[in-house]
Design goal:
The protein contains 26 helices and 21 strands. It has five domains: 12-85, Helix Hairpins (Orthogonal Bundle); 97-351, DNA ligase/mRNA capping enzyme (D-amino Acid Aminotransferase, Chain A, domain 1, 2-Layer Sandwich), CATH 3.30.470.30; 356-440, Nucleic acid-binding proteins (OB fold (Dihydrolipoamide Acetyltransferase, E2P)), CATH 2.40.50; 469-614, DNA polymerase, domain 1, CATH 1.10.150; 641-711, BRCT domain (Rossmann fold, 3-Layer(aba) Sandwich). It has 715 residues and is an alpha+beta fold.
Length: 715
């Protein structure tokens, strides 16, 4: 089973707790315990009461773990009111209090297979005198939904009250808001003869990811700050004073167990209350959504396999999970095992590696791309998120920085939920330095000192100096990239060296390089210079599709380049085409057509094209087929749409799309009924995968994708 570790080899939360303890000022254990209790109580209130956490769950867990270890080492410091012995946080006075008939406990956490095994050993020790009970231990595993715990009370089958967990003893009455959640039944669908006098159902209210994205889209359109994450959005939606506001948020619910059951046949011994798995079946019959991933495992090895599978599927789901909940299935054994002051001994939460961390935003800088677009990005104090170290993160544009109110010196939440590109979610306002000033977009280009201009109605800002060295470097590096002219050995550093030496000023100058000048540069020898010249020479025959990608025409990527190359015979014909002619091509709209016409209308661009022609670069379409040609062989993916999602081992995203396009196919960004197949790599998009499954579209792994490229046939 994959087990995330930091450089120390310890589970990451344990390593963080150890580091925090070692970096803490040298204080007496009692003082450190008092400080940890103060911090944990503060952060617990911010999370449970205010729905505005200031640290990530991972860092909160590390504080609790350090306190737990200190209290274990110094039993005289233990306290019944310590955060390690209590649950949640006191309910908000904004809602009427609800006394739980049975306490709603928290869960102890484990962070590795070794810790999961140690929990199993403790169970065996607790049942040491009962060999039959030990042999009967089986487990129920379910995804740990990152939502809000909820208690639903039904009397004779009718919903009469809904309450949050609160501090485990007293929760908040949110009945009116919960009634707006469509999947929660107002009346149970059990036969009248099976209805108990009281049935308490426990579960988790959450916000699906698709709904969260739509909610944030509306926030941005309204000029409001986006919500930080689905869990806080769900909690905030449920705690609205006006149920009409809650009703506008498409909250969902999974039932995971029973609380109080009074009267009726269900309370009888041997009924569905005697096993957790049977209770879940009962809940499904009663009309509640029960997670389809729940599985019963007869032994702990199976539990470990389940945890590994859930971790792999984490980003396939339309809801966030942060681990797996493992419970002893036999309710009689649950009663024998009992509970501590805050958690049952018969259940545990296996926590996944963190996907959110807090860190320092040291600077907000601006990079200049090949089209002159100026993109702000965050320079962060390096932090390990989702298994990799994050030091930089794009901030997209001026409006995004303003909406999130990001400032240099802020402590920020960084998220990397299965995506390659990390995101700065937002600032921790309570930790903001008093002198932190709002960030202002620079007015001059960091590359050339020229003006930065934001066009009216646009969200992007541009350097308008076409001779800007930063643009020049990015254009040439892009020209040489694998998805463009594929010139091996010509990366950004080499391009910068060639520009600095005055050997190249535009992409066409690459074809004028000579052996003597290259070999004289630092880091080059005759062999490496010959290799680079050979790679440049080979790129002359790449064809029109790759050349169009390489020329950095605004809005023209691999898909549009392939569409243009399929419809027009060569680069000269493309340059002579009108907007109307280009707009008529499949996938090419008015905006793209105008961009292509504007590119070829530029005198500077025409000069570069003539230099490329003189250098012998092929202008003819590599995909053009005359309809009258009897020699034209059909391409294996002609007319077929193949969507790629996730990370492939043997292809970058651009290379996979280019491979599809070169074989006559299309590679759109979304799944539809017209999609021929969906190629799935590591950490695929949940929405794309779900839609493909709903539509019955073939789903291919990388090996099947290679067969498709070679033969045009599905395995």
């Amino acid at each position: 089973m994959p087990e995330p570790t930091m450089s120390s080899g310890r589970p990451p939360v344990e390593a963080l707790a150890a580091r925090a303890a070692s970096e803490a000022p040298a204080t007496a254990p009692a003082d450190r315990v008092a400080e940890l209790r103060r911090q944990i109580a503060y952060h617990s209130a911010r999370y449970h009461q205010d729905d505005a956490p200031e640290i990530a769950d991972f860092e909160y867990d590390a504080l609790v773990l350090e306190l737990t270890e200190l209290e274990a080492s110094h039993p005289e410091l233990a306290s019944a009111v310590s955060p390690t012995a209590t649950v949640g946080a006191p309910p908000s006075p904004a809602f009427a209090p609800v006394q739980h008939a049975l306490r709603m406990l928290s869960l102890d956490n484990v962070f590795s297979v070794d810790e999961l095994t140690a929990w199993g050993v403790r169970l065996e020790r607790l049942l040491a005198g009962e060999p039959e009970a030990r042999s009967a231990v089986a487990f129920v595993c379910e995804p740990k939904i990152d939502g809000l715990a909820m208690s639903l009370r039904y009397e004779r089958g009718t919903l009469v009250r809904a309450a949050t967990r609160g501090d485990g003893t007293t929760g908040e009455d949110v009945t009116a808001n919960v009634r707006t959640i469509g999947v929660i039944p107002h009346e149970l669908t059990l036969p009248a003869t099976d209805l108990p006098e009281v049935l308490e159902v426990r579960g988790e209210v959450y916000l699906p990811l698709a709904a969260f994205e739509e909610l944030n889209r509306r926030q941005l359109e309204a000029g409001l700050r986006p919500f930080a994450n689905p869990r806080n959005s769900a909690a905030g939606s449920l705690r609205q004073k006006d149920p009409a506001v809650t009703a506008e948020r498409p909250l969902a619910f999974f039932a995971y167990g029973l609380g109080e059951v009074r009267g009726g046949p269900l309370a009888g011994r041997g009924g569905p209350l005697e096993r957790q798995s049977a209770a879940l079946e009962l809940l499904a019959r009663a009309g509640f959504p029960v997670n389809p991933m729940i599985r019963r495992e007869a032994e702990l090895d199976g539990v470990a396999r389940y945890c590994a599978e859930a971790l792999e599927r984490r980003h396939d789901l339309d809801y966030e999970i942060d681990g797996v909940v493992v419970k002893v299935d036999d309710v009689a054994l649950q009663r024998r095992l009992g509970a501590t002051s805050h958690a049952p001994r018969w259940a545990v939460a296996y926590k996944f590696p963190p996907e959110e961390r807090t860190t320092l935003l040291k600077q907000i800088l601006v990079s200049i791309g090949r089209t002159g677009r100026a993109t702000p990005f965050a320079a962060l104090e390096p932090v390990v998120v989702a298994g990799s170290t994050v030091g930089l993160a794009s901030l997209h544009n001026e409006d995004q920085v303003a909406l999130k109110d990001l400032r240099e010196g802020d402590t920020v939440i960084v998220r990397k939920a299965g995506d390659v590109i990390p995101e700065v979610v937002g600032p921790v306002l309570a930790a903001r330095p008093p002198d932190a000033a709002p960030w202002r977009f620079p007015t001059t280009c960091p590359g050339c000192g020229g003006p930065l201009v934001r066009l009216e109605g646009e969200s992007d800002t541009f350097c308008i100096n076409v001779d800007c060295p930063a643009q020049q470097l990015q254009r040439i590096a892009h020209f040489a990239a694998r998805s463009a002219m594929d010139i091996e050995g010509l990366g950004e550093m080499r391009v910068g060296q060639l520009i600095g030496a005055g050997l190249v000023h535009d992409v066409a100058d690459l074809y004028r390089l000579d052996l003597e000048a290259l070999a004289a540069l630092e880091g080059f020898g005759e062999v490496s210079a010959r290799n680079l010249l050979a790679a440049i020479d080979a790129s002359r025959a790449r064809g029109m599709t790759r050349l169009l990608v390489a020329l950095s025409i605004h809005h023209v990527g691999p898909t549009i380049a392939a569409a243009l190359a399929a419809a027009i015979v060569d680069l000269d014909a493309l340059g002579a085409a009108s907007e109307e002619q280009l707009s008529a091509i499949d996938q090419v709209g008015g905006t793209i057509a105008a961009s292509v016409v504007a590119f070829f209308a530029s005198e500077r661009n025409r000069q570069v094209i003539e230099k490329l022609r003189s250098a012998g670069v092929a202008f003819g379409s590599d995909r053009y087929r005359s309809p009258t040609s009897e020699e034209a062989a059909p391409l294996p993916l002609a007319g077929r749409s193949v969507v790629v999602t996730g990370t492939l081992e043997g292809f970058s995203r651009e290379e996979a799309e280019a491979a599809i396009l070169e074989r006559g196919g299309k590679s759109p960004g979304s799944v539809s009924a017209k999609t021929f197949a969906v190629v799935v790599g590591a950490e695929p998009g949940a929405a794309k995968l779900s839609k493909a499954e709903q539509l019955g579209i073939p789903i291919l792994d990388e090996a099947a994708f290679r067969r498709l490229l070679a033969t045009g046939e599905l395995a």
